[in-house]
Amino acid sequence: QVIRSFTFELGLDAGYKLEMNLEKVKQSLADKLNERLDEKPELLKWIISLALDRVGDNKSWNYRRELLDLTSEIFKERFQPFENALKELDSATLFQDLMKLTRARIAYFEEAGKTLGADALQVWEKSGVQMDELKGKSRHPFAKLHKLAAGDHAVFIDLKKVINNPEEYQKGGNLTASVAGLYNQINPVLLDLEDFFSAETGKYEMAKAINTNLYYLRLMQEMASLLTDYREENQALLISDAQFLLKGITADQQDNPSFIWEKMGNRYKNFLFDEFQDTSSFQWDNFLPLLQNTISEANGKLIDNLIVGDVKQSIYRWRNGDWRILLHKAKADIGNHNVESDSLEENYRSAANIIDFN
User: Fold this and answer.
1) 214-264, pLDDT tens digit by residue?
2) How far is CA 283 from CA 42, 77, 252, 289, in A?
3) CA distance 217 to 180
4) pLDDT above 90 (res 95)
5) Are 267 and 274 in contact (CB under 8 A)?
6) Is the dihedral of CA 311, 317, 319, 320 positive or negative?
7) Contact 291/334 with Cβ under 8 angstroms?
8) Do residue 293 and residue 219 come from a single domain?
9) What total number of domains does the chain contain?
10) Do 147 and 279 fall into the same domain?
11) pLDDT for residue 41 is more than 80
């Protein structure tokens, strides 16, 4: 009813249909993407590269299942800022440049880590110290230096405990001359490794995460474009579009929502929000001007509006639910002076040990 009240303002055809089967839409978009390959040779090259990479990783060349899974993101609120940002960039070169950048970062980290690991291994081997001379013998972290030099940087976490710590070389920290010499030579190398991993690991993991999904991000951008065509061709409004479209209406009526009341043919003076911990940011943005209007007209003698929720019961993050709105944002937006908070002190649904645990 609300959407139909604003069909003209939203640019919708009066005979539009509401599409709730997003799986059907995703399948249709995937089919249209394949049809578009003849028109966009650069997109075809991108998909061929994706298929070759998948085969190189011992995966099936068929990327459709993963693409369909990720395409679910284009129906979510959090995709909108990403899509808007892409519209301002040259996507023809953006993804290629990103791929070069991330792969260079990955290669640098892995090669530099191996080089530093090889330096540590060389110091160890030249020292002549045997494993039997060290604390823990064959279980000493230095037994993993070969793996570090081969590129397994995950083992460095075991080596960290020997840095600046002679007691991890020999029990009690009373080092023999040969072990003391090893400590003095290898400790600076391990410190360099620690500095390197501390500074570069985050960048490396970020580059890997971006690079892993980069092919699909490019295809998702194409799917988002096809989604616009799908809406027009089928005169369809997706159920996921509702909040986004309404946000454009309510954003223009922050101070005076009388236009909204007029179009809806109803005026509401009281609101009850239940399960508020699962409210999305778009939903809150849409309701906020209406709620602020009712608060401004309240006489202050009664509690005119009620928000009920429990952040610990937030289970709809996958549907854009944001528990932080209940935790602090709603109160900040409404104004602390307009809010009276109250907690349910007695629980009749759970045993005492459950309550104590929480």
Assistant:
1) 888 888 888 888 888 888 888 877 777 767 766 666 665 555 566 666 666
2) 38, 10, 15, 11
3) 53
4) no
5) no
6) positive
7) yes
8) no
9) 2
10) no
11) yes
Least confident of 115-124, 140-149, 310-319: 310-319
Report whether 2 contacts 287 (CB < 8 A).
no
What is the arithmetic mean of pLDDT over 346-352?
80
Q: Look at residues 215, 234, 253 and tell me which one is the last residue of a structural domain.
A: 234
* 8 A C-beta contact, residue 3 and residue 237: yes
Instruction: Show which of 234, 254, 279 is a domain's final residue.
Output: 234
- Calpha distance 140→279 (Å, rounded): 52
| pLDDT at 4 (0 to 100) | 63
Residue 353 lies in a domain: no
Which SS3 state, helix, strand or coil, does residue 177 take?
Answer: helix
User: Do residue 259 and residue 193 come from a single domain?
Assistant: no
- Residue-wise pLDDT for 195-214, tens only, equals 999 999 999 999 999 888 88
The tokens for 82 are 């990403």
- What pLDDT sits at residue 234? 84
Radius of gyration of the chain (CA): 30
Q: Which domain holds residue 253?
A: 242-341
Taking residues 287-303, what's their average pLDDT?
A: 76
